[in-house]
Amino acid sequence: MSEWDKDIAALDLSDPEKNGLQVYRNYTTAFEKRRAKEFSEEVNAESYNISGLDGVCDAIASDDERFLPVIACAFSDEALHEMYKREIPKGIPGGRDSLFAGYGPFSSLSKRIQVACAFGWLSEDILQDIDSLRKIRNKISHSWDHESLSGYAEQAPISNITPIEEIFKEHQACLLFSNVKSLDAVGRLRVRTIWILGRLFYESLLYPRALKKRLHPHGVLYGQYHPELLSKVSGVCSEYSRKVLGSTI
After folding, report:
1. pTM score, two decimals?
2. CA spacing 20 to 30 A to 187: which of 29, 50, 129, 166?
3. Would you tell me how many other CB atoms lie within 10 Å of the CB of residue 140?
């Protein structure tokens, strides 16, 4: 075998050793692709209700800017709650419900975010962004003077939320996002939050499931053989992004 990957070709090894490494890599890659395809086929055979995502994206696209963090956090809280209920096994000492009550590890949004981050159950950037929204939600919830919150979308931590338009700049959807930077701070927040919630909805359903099958979640969920649900979620997020942008793209 003389067709080696560049990194293997650069190794200080004999040709037979390089051949062995290349064969192993080719086999592993083919095996992973097959398992990813099987995972997607399994997911595609099931049905998922995306009406809730549609509703929250509509609210994020059109409601008063002061309500955006509250709405986003309420949806995130529910999505994480359902994820833990679905994935945590029965037979927990004291009962599974005790995990969600009082001082249990899943009793609040902040704790649900921390546990998901600690155990790698969702993409870290999603969890960091939801936590930024949570911090602003708390300020809004505990302030009687909402005028003091004017311009919050331009300030940290909200200003540090992942710019979805940068993630997709090399993607076929880049045309949709090309005008996001021309929006004001609230408009950018609306679009970015729509995609945060779309990704959260998608990953909360499938990320832990992929982990349990010992698959690489990001590659399986966003790679060549991604489940059809990704296209449906992206369709909802794109629709309401267009609404914010006032675009007919």
Report:
1. 0.85
2. 50
3. 16
- The whole-angstrom separation of Cα 2 and Cα 6 is 11
Return the structure tokens found at 92: 């927990």
Q: How far apart are CA 170 and CA 151, in angstroms?
A: 31
Per residue in 63-93, pLDDT (tens digit) is 988 899 999 999 999 999 999 999 888 888 8
Structure tokens at 212: 């349990």
Distance (Å, rounded) from C-alpha 59 to C-alpha 68? 8
22-36: per-residue pLDDT in tens?
A: 787 777 777 788 999
Residue owning tokens 């546990």: 115
Under 8 Å between Cβ of 181 and 188:
yes
State the DSSP code for 154. G
**Residue whose token pair is 């833990």:** 84
Q: 191 Cβ partners below 8 Å, 6+ apart?
A: 164, 165, 177, 180, 183, 241, 244, 245
- The alpha carbon of residue 159 and the mean position of all alpha carbons in its chain are separated, in whole angstroms, by 18
Rounded to whole angstroms, how far apart are CA atoms 181 and 188? 7
The whole-angstrom distance between residue 224's C-alpha and the CA centroid of its chain comes to 17
